[in-house]
Amino acid sequence: MSEMVASPKGHIEVKNFSLAYETIEGAVQAVTDTQIHVKPGEFVSIVGPSGCGKSTLLNAVAGFLKPTTGIVTVDGERVNGPSAERGMVFQQYSLFPWKTVRENVEFGLKMRGMPRSQRERAARTLLGLAGLEAFEKHYPEKLSGGMKQRVGIVRALATGPKVLLLDEPFGALDAQTRVIMQQILTNMWQRLKISVLFVTHDIDEAIFLSDRVYCMTARPGSIKAEIPIPLERPRQQSMMMSSEFLALRRGLMSLIREESLKAMGGEINDMGMQGLNIELHGHSLADVI
Amino acid sequence: MSSPALLRHAEDSMPATAIAEAGPAPAVTPPATRPSFGTLALRWYRLNQGRLRATAIGIISLLAFLLVWHLLTTYRVVFFVRFTNVPSPLAVYASFTKAIHDPKFLLHIALSCRRIFIGFSLAAIVGVPLGLIMGRFKLVHEIIFPVAEVLRPIPAIAWVPMAIMLWPTNEQSIVFITFLGSFFPILVNTLHGMSLVDPVLVRAAQCLGARERSIFREVYFPASLPHIFTGLTVGMGVAWVSLIAAEMISGQYGIGYFTWEAYSLVQYADIALGMIAIGVLGLGSSLLIRGAGQLVMPWRST
Fold first, then answer.
1. Do B208 and A84 touch (CB under 8 A)?
2. What pTM value is reported for the model?
3. ipTM summary value
């Protein structure tokens, strides 16, 4: 467990990044001309309209996809493929159904060759931190979505990675569970002091969790804006009502809205929406969309 | 019906799960007092009502089948189908009680079981690993798949003459037929299982530091197991079909041969006895496989 409490680490740098898919009609540009970085111990989110390539970017940092141009480095080392140094949490939880909760958490340690008794102890400790001790012998199928994703996070953290990558991890959860999960993630991040790169389409979530938020353009994706989140920590749920939070939200909202409309081919505009008789009930149009 | 203990239990269980959903795990609190035997029995009955009902109906349906069989044969009904020579259930039962004391009958059964065991085991030992390797390595798939696709539609029974030519003894050719019957379902289902492995699980393993070998052992293999067992179940069924056909054509022993011989010797009760024995053996072997599946895949049971 000593490796779990260490000085900040995990400096992610993505430079001159672009990624294209080969198709019969030629190359399709998914992400183009992108630079991002995550400082050691920083919590950074990427938001953007759906299909903008934010997951593609994250998968490239994980090492699942090779950039067409540019380079991805972590602590100066080039990313050449997936590795236990970059833990990943998936939207679909992706727990191994044939392994119990504890065996799932142990998996990374087992791959590293840690003896059974030692990794069992480590897994129990980690599960205890996530409040899952009582479920160590359960198979994932029996757990609720929130519990599954807690296991997913703990499993990714078990090997003591430098970086935690999350791909819309709470996208499949209900609103209440989501809020709790955000708090759990924040607690773990603060305790472990590792860098986090978090992909989401939920603007509130991005602002609430992050030190910095990158907003991407519609496909082909590139960075449209970089927004520092100066909200103080520890963050409370009540902050989401503060004027500071709401101002950030409004700003990000209009950025993404612009891009979402672009992604829909500019066919829809405000006039069009009103023409469809959408009742706004006092909300702004941006809130409704 | 609604005893106080039952009511209390229902109320208790709800908040417990609600807490489990939301926050840190609570220790499961055991009920304060042990419920009486009566409440337990009642609760068990309520929980298993559906299954009890199914069992009861199943038994009644089997009895009805026997009764219809009995009536059709006793009155020697001829209505398109001729029941004139069909043995009655009682006659079959009589020949059954005689047969279980007859070492020859038991030998027929033992030999059929041995052929199934050897043929099926070989098919599993070759088919499962081959399917796994074909699923993982494209080149192996590209080489073997076309041959398999051409041979697969040939029923195992069509192999009988060829098998007799290929193998020096009758015994070997019958085992070979049994092997062929079960081999293709096992291979095809294993391949199918491999093709359905969730790539996200492979990714998850990779970014936890798993290399090729570990991914094969820890992800591809367990993920394919449900389909492998489907293949084994189907393969076992086809193995029996192939075995009985092979025994009827070229056998000297075996339950298939016994059944055919009974016809030749005009021992009609033995025909039905042979058929029922085949049914029971087939049912038993598929139950064995299902049991093995539950042992190997504890995460799938209920």
1. yes
2. 0.82
3. 0.85
